[in-house]
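Subject: mismatched residue count in predicted assembly?

I count 1112 residues in my input, but I want to confirm that the predicted structure covers every chain. Input:
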Amino acid sequence: MPKCTINGQEVEVKEGATIMEAFYKLNEGIAHYCYHPGLSVAGVCRLCIVDIEGNPRPQIACNTAVTEGMKVSNQGEKLKDGVKWVLDFHLINHPLDCPVCDQAGECGLQDQYMQYGKYSSEMAEPKVKKHKVVDLGPTIVLDSERCILCARCVRFTDEVSKTNELGLFNRGDRTEIGTFDGKPLDNNYSLNTVDICPVGALTSKDFRFRQRVWYLKDSESICTGCSTGCNVKVYYNKEGAFRVKPVYNEKVNGHWMCDVGRDVYKFVNREHRLLKGRVKQKGQATWTDMDAGALAKDAHKAIKAAGDKLAIVLTGQYSTHEYQLLLKNLPTKNVYHWKNQPEEWEKFDGLLYRGDKNPNTKGVEAAMNSNGIKSNWNDLLTAIKSGSVQTVLVAGPENMAVYNDMNEKIQELGAAQNVIWASACKSEDFDKLNTNAWLLPMKSYLEKEGSFINHQGLEQKFKKATTIVSEALTLGEASYLLSGQNIPVMKVAPIDTFIEADRRPDQVTLEHRKKNEFVYKRGSL
Amino acid sequence: MFQLSSEGLNAVKNELSRYETKESAIIPSLYIAQKENSGWVSKDVIHHLSTVMQIPESKINEVFQFYTMFNQQPVGKYHVQVCVNISCALEGGRELANHICDELKVKAGEITEDKRFTVNRVECLGSCGTAPMMQVNDKYYENLTNESAMNVLRGMK
Amino acid sequence: MSEVKYLTEFYHLNEFQGLEGYKKNGGYVQLQRAFKMKPAEIIEEVKKSGLRGRGGAGFATGVKWGFLPKNDEPRYLLCNADEGEPGTFKDRMMMERAPHQLIEGMIISAYAINCKKSYIYVRGEYDYPINCLVKAIKEAYSAGLLGKNILGSGFDHEMDIYAGAGAYIVGEETGMISSLEGLKGQPKLKPPFPAIQGYLRKPTIVNNVETLAAVKYIIRDGAQGYRKYGTEKSAGSKLFSLSGNIVKPGNYEVPLGYSLKDMIYGLGGGMKPGRKLKAVIPGGSSAPVLTAEEAERAALDYESLAGMGTMLGSGAIIVIDDSQCMVDMLGVLTHFYSHESCGQCTPCREGTGWLNKIVHSILEGRGRLQDIDLLLKVADNMKGRTICALAEAAALPVLSFVSKFRDEFEFFVREGRSKVKGTSYAQMHH
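Triage response: the counts match. Full output below for your records.
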């Protein structure tokens, strides 16, 4: 474990660590673009130069290993001047089109320019012309003129996704990244290249031109797309959620997440949501809207009337705490686990994406086990048919897109006399419920706190980001009302989200985004 | 669609097993394919080599576009490359290149109407003591004057 | 002092190209002698000889070999025959006239560093030299000089040739390794250095053609014998490629420390009638230019030229006479470096293009006076900040041309035409 001194502060790093890693460990500022902790070292942006005592020439921090007693500084005036020039070399052929660039506000060039910029460019020659608005594939658009050729994206497709779509073609200042002959950059991890692009060269088709980033807030959460449980940051404002990006967690997802996971947020927005409770009697063609709370109390009658003829159906889409509350408030052994395509559950793409498209399958299993419940789906169907189950409470999936048996289950469960269906989203399929039915609007994962247990049994807490449907209930809240109780005032201990261990600071610190946000708020006063 | 001839295919396979890694065969294989594709490398060529060599197109294309001896555009039967780097420039290499272009009525990089010639200005070819010089296909012609260069080219049918 | 015939002793004989003629003139005798020595003895002898890399960097060959790990890990020897430095054409002659001299030097070197596989990386444009080498390697294999148990020594060695495809940067040793690995010829990050991790991450030694050929003579004459020519720190003889505005351009072998003035006015036959010497680039296009006055007192060895702020480089002497416009010539060089930058490191990729644009702005009459100082600033800020030396190679000519011939640049900016030629750039070239 060698010790070194960075700008006068002593730090101990692990054997073989680079000076860059020592800077990261101290959270000490150092300009850099091409270095990314999840990729091999390219050493090409040349911004991370540092002075090492006893070495006549500045060295790059990303490719220099720390040795015992090394004294490193990036504070010398000459060195700082060098960094300014290297940064200016990045900018001389950059279009500086920030006002129309989607990256503006979270751009590595902008951010680092504030601190390390030369502020007086002497470039007076025509800039190199390169390809613009290149359709790279289903998810990404490339602007080659903005590209600073850090090669992070190329290294990503070579080393992480191992799909090799991208290359650096030509040489000198004519170099461009691209795919060969229009072959699309089309893999389930493609959007990570947008995340690691330090500039606006690669932009996400899903996100571009939809929001300025300084109009967005962010909150950390867990991806609910599959049982891996990637740590993510969700970006939202009062119009809803706009995008999801991965957050580093060594134990779960490293630096990355998959493209499927990035689309999961979409169902939480209002256009997909069940905004009010809905109720109808058997034989009625149309639903009647009802406030969620009143609806839950109304549904309580069906539960009470059923007595021990109540059955509960759980999906792996709720938090562990919600399952526990539900089973505590409505104690029954008639609990069944609705598994969507269980034959796929063991599938794994080798990187992150798993066949079990539920964030909390392990949570359902744990809740059932702790209540001593062993059940079989066919028993439920038989019981409904025979009338020994009269009322079914379904904790339905919030991400219905991954439940391709929705229709089938609506048919099967609709055979019961009363169906209370908790659902975050609306669906036309519910119209097929030909029985006494209550649709109870649920909060999505972004609107509540709790925890999921992922495929490896790791329990990860997540916190509430925002409220999108104010009337919606959590499954826990609903369980109080459904069991005839009132929702108690719950004292919520401040939850420290995620596992804090092994977390590194963001690649690009977004400090001045906050300033922008302040400006925005001031403007709106 | 470009396809290697059976000899070409054997030659590529031979190169694939010649070196420690198959990627080392990219440059030799591009040479083989370029020769069979009338002196230039089209997108088809890269697609075909990618299939034959089992190497991603992007990797072959990176190599292809890095090296100047692989032509990214069609060329004439005779590819005339006139050195215009410093030693040749001092001895009139640029004037020679202009003269050849004027005589053949083409701009640098273009093919003559009769498809016989492409003229290019290139960097040092390592023949500085015999400047000015040009390379026509594989062969060097040195100590040139405007007249002697044109005589060489006129003799090429 | 005059030209010496040490490495080039038999270059006038056509038969020296083939194995038979080469053997008739003392070929492969030193290989047999080397096999009787211990590898470590050969390395020691090369160290003592003071042989320095003849490709450009001038690094001590024996010391470089000494960096190899002291174990049995497989290693590679790579002969750098990419000869791309403008003005240089000596290696081409060596491969055409005496391919076996190189092969013998390589086998001895390989034996010294316990290497079982070597490559000769030749630039692709060198079609004829490649043919000469291919033929010579074939001859060597059939004569049992390559392959298993060479000459009954128990030493095995395989040799192959690899043709490049047109990229100056491949002459940089790690760029060459990348190219041989089938990648773009982009230099690799150092550390690790090639002697520790080179070709395919195995220890690799990269030496120039002339360097490897010289090893044979160190075996023949011993370290002391080899030092018969040259100076204390720049030992031996060296081939110089003389080109440009000179009466008798060509390759000349002289002892290191030879006078540049004698090279130009003696061996080179002097300036053309009516012309005066204006400037000399002494070590290939990357070396800072010398004025006529400086050139006339320069000596051709590593230390003397370094003392004058320039370098011996590859030994390419480019002579510029008083009819040449220095702004125009710098335009040729900046174009070359921006064309050849591999595009990896930002300061080089962007800087070479920027320099070229500024010089051409001046040439095309759009220059501003501040552009002259800007050239100096840009060049200065490219230096020493990149993976390889190309940025430096591009910056040094700019710094030296501008500072030594500033009047020509200022005249061009003010008048929009060349001080020397009297005409604009467009008039000069069409």
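The first strand of chain C starts at residue 76 and ends at 81. Marking this ticket as 'not a bug'.
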